[in-house]
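Database export, one record per block. Field names are fixed; values are copied verbatim from the stored entry.
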Amino acid sequence: MDNPAEKASEETLKKIYNALNKGNCFRVEAGAGAGKTYSLIEALKYLINSRTTELQRKNKKIACITYTNVATDEIRNRIDNHPLVFVDTIHGFCWSIIQGYQKYMRNLLITIGDEKLTEKIEEAGGLKNQKIIYDLGYRKATETEIYLHHDNIIQLFTALLSIEKFINILKSKYPIIFIDEYQDTNIELAKALILQIIDKEKNIQIGLFGDHWQKIYDDGVGEMGSEKIEEIGKNANFRSEKNIVDMLNRMRPELPQMVKDPLSDGNIKIFHTNNWIGARRDGKGGGHWTDDLPSEESSKYIQIVKNQLISEGWEFKHEKTKVLMLTNSVLAREQGYSSLIDVFKFPDDYLKMQDKYIDYFVNTIEPVSNLYIIKKYGEMLKAIGIKTPRLMNHNEKKVWVNSLNKLIEIRNNGTVGDVIDFLKETQKPSLSAKIVEDEERFDKLKELTEFKDEPDKEFVQKNKKLKSVKYSEIIELAKYIDDKTPFSTNHGVKGAEYENVLVICGRGWNKYNWDQFLTLVRNGFPVEKKDFFNRNRNLFYVSCSRPKKRLAVLFTQKLSDNSIATLNNWFLSENIYAI
């Protein structure tokens, strides 16, 4: 079968190999589904096959810089951990170079603009002859040591690139440097690489692999361009079926992609709610909600669309379908844990389980309960931390069974406080030491009406609020954290792919306004709107390029005629539905 995507990929590799042979710095622009990592791996293998003897004789290596530990492990595995290539995260790579330049770093520390670190150094008696250490990424200073934050590593490496001696040392170790997901490179570091190495032709060959349309975080540079960088577009899409690839090409005509299977279909449906009659949100409680549907109506429309898609063969199972939403608050509302998130100031407290109660519930109580329900008792005991031989006594087993049955009942029908009180009484399973400590503190303070210390007051208020939440919300949160639901934020799926994707385009974050963005696509944008436009464009592109077979988009925000015209242009009028 004809595979145009494969042919386009082969052409890209030829251009990469040619650039490597000529010693040119280059940028591989690989759109969604293009197989960017494959091109990077093949480029590394090409260098391993052609340059190993030469580089090893000179005691030199190829560096490959990544932005996640997952990417680091994947690349290492796919090149069989070849000794010619040093693969590490950006922080690991930079620290491996600069850690030997203690004097330079000490001289630069006060110039990098880290006020928190400067304050800690002053508290420790000032800058002396301390050893500079990078370990866990926490700022700390003593009379003998200074511990750096993650940001400091990039700041120091960037500053050192202005020193000729440092560049020569870098070149002597790594004459070839690849950067994976280049668009996520720190802005100042990206500028320094271009100005100090690429533009000045320092004989360090830099290969950039990524896509500036998939830069969705504020601290990344986005596009890296220079007259000295050879641009190589990868015109392939191995992920999506034909109609979806055609849509992406209309959205991004400057990087047209060839589809893997020209005979494939691909289904697209775009829904908007302009026909809804009623008062839309007016910005009270936050202007970032202006022109969106009221939350209850938004939920109704999401369900209407889901029902429509189910009737057409969609399966809303987490293995097959993703529902993408802009904010964690909307996700929480749709999944049934909106009261829970109101307890916390920061999403990481519950999403990354930085709160000790959430950590205990998600990583202990939920696994134990679920394993008990499906009668995997051996695994359940391991989750609790009990070795099986210790439960040989029949009476003890009976006590555990009764306790777990009651826990399941309270878990389904009670509050977080009810679960905590029950576990305090039964110790089956035991509360964590951190929670026991907090519970003792709470018991001492909970009856007070006036507090000497504000932290004590906030602690009691938060604890009471958490304990009043229905525990069923913890169950739903745990499913989401464990990726057992179809839901995700738009930002959470970069690099991923799914059979079906439903994108919910509403308000809720002042950085994003889909109607304004779609209007700017049609009418153009002033220079001061460039960052806003790129931010919205990139997230919309990333969201719409995740599906393999089916894409649906629901706009709960009211859209202008110009926005509808943009949608007609990209998605075609026959795929646009007013509901």
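Remark 1: Residues 36-57 form the longest helix (22 residues).
Remark 2: The chain has a mean pLDDT of 93.
End of record.
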